[in-house]
Structure prediction request, 648 residues.
Amino acid sequence: MHELKSLLIKLTHGVSEQDLSKKEIELVQEWLAKTYLTFKNNNYKFNSKYRAGVLGLVQKGTAYLHVIGDNVKDLYIDEIGAATEGDLIIAQRLLGKRGGASAKIAEVVGREESYGVGYIIEKYGHKSLVDIKTEHPVGAELTQGEINSYKLGDVFKIDYQEHKVMEKLGHMDDPKVDEKIVLAQYNKHDEFDEEVLKIARSFPPVDAKKHPNRKDLRALPFCTIDPVTAKDFDDSIYWDDANTTLYVAIADVSEYVKPFGALDNEAMYRGFSIYLPHRSIPMLPRELSETLCSLQPHIDRLAYVFEIKLDRETLEVVHSDVYEVLMHSDRRFNYEEIDAFFDGKLKAKTKEEELIFDALTKLRVITDRLRHERLKIGFDFHSVEISMTLDEDTNLIATTESEETPSHGLVEDCMLLANKEAAKRYDRGIFRIHEPPSQSKLQTLYQELSAIGMNIEIKGTVKETIEAIQKQAREMGIESDVDTLIIRSQMQARYAPLNSGHFGLGFKEYTHFTSPIRRYSDLIVHRLLKAIKKGDTKEGSYVLRNIETLAMMISEKERESSSIEVEYKARKYARWAKQHLHKEFKARIIATDSEVRAELHDEIIGAKLNITGATDVVLFENVIIRIDKVDIPRARIYAAVVGKAGDV
Prediction:
């Protein structure tokens, strides 16, 4: 999220001068003079007559303004003047008019997408620099002579606010430019400034003698369980079966990343670590994320621990506490190792491992029961994750499906328990909320499923209806496909300052506590819990001061990170498809509404295909497709259905 949009969200909720940059203060003073804002109790806030938003789809000179920073209805604007779709607007609400809420544009203040990517094409006999998504000229201040000095296919990062080319990213034919493209679109960067790195390198190794006030849990046999490629271990577990007590130890990032300063600002700007198939782009410098904060085995680490005592009969939480500790993990496992142990294919090699395996065996009984109870109120979705293998030039060479295994389930239920306990400790802060789906989305889902012959019977609750649909889908052998449609019909989970529950999980309160190395939301939760624990109202009020704005900003950062990961994979699929033009593959139809789309289910799985000329296909039908055309700049694959297939 860029700075201007962030400022508009802050002003919706109210922001003090000390939380504004010098550049932001200049804008605020200008808008105050125009009466868009008020200044009360040392807070700048939008005048009740004004709202900020993004101009939506323009039709015949009218548009709707998507209000940002506030969950209110869109505002209808019947005269947009020179404004265009995607403009950031300050609008004056119009009262007393019939019909829906409406407004008029007070001022166009910028563009929602401040940054983008352009590349050189040949158009009407001469070279042109065009936007990668629209192929419209980018409007950057380049002479025709400058454009002519570049090659066809050269790729650039564009600043749309300033109408200038920022840097050359590479050439469209080079697969390594894909990473630069997806990052540039959201103004993300990989490298950390020297000032940030200097802070990250300044912390000494953990010395137990310097932390006398921390509880010493180094004697407990903690272990980490992560993907085989993981380097940032931010959670570790130990099950004390005799006392039915679960210890969830989380990297104590808040000990190192303090509010204010370059390190915190950079973490907030990034918001999340980004995981691409071949590497990660961390939220924190690797000196912290992969070393000092990471709960590596056989080395002292600072952690923030939830100690959760359960009733053995009911599995209700009898008591929980959260506190700062000294610990070290006795063993680092990957998921495959723990699954092999559960399958009886891996034996303990040391006394240390024997203790851990014994505890995990007993813990699995508990987490299996917790999951069983959880799914009585929450949903169980059959999701498949697709992993990519790339060669040294970042070309796609293989894909694999990975499903949740017992080891994943064990860790997940431990983390869910800690996240739930964290959310119970405050009324205002960072919550992870998930609202029930809208009736219109559910109706669309039911219609799509009816069209493929499913019998949709509306039950007493949405959960009962969906579980009946899932049962039918299992019997029809399309469980995963139907679950994907059901997930698409749901609201998007997001971060919010006030609790409204988590519909998908069936939890009354929920937050994110367990991954502060890779999520800024969790770092905020740690700071808040520590302030509450210490009775530090000053620190607590600081954490909460701009919490509405922060929750919205983190939600947007999450969407950006997710989009980068999805778009990068789409680019890898497109390059693979370009090497396989006119070849035939097995695929499955995944959409038939506004356009027909299919998903590859062959030697390569997961690639999304735009199907042309297909009129006689049905949802979830298995087909043979031929790849006809690939648009590398837009990462789109076009294919034709050339036959029917059996089971894919």
DSSP finds 16 helices and 30 strands in the chain. The mean pLDDT is 92. The chain has five domains: 3-111, 115-173, 194-433+496-565, 439-490, 580-644.
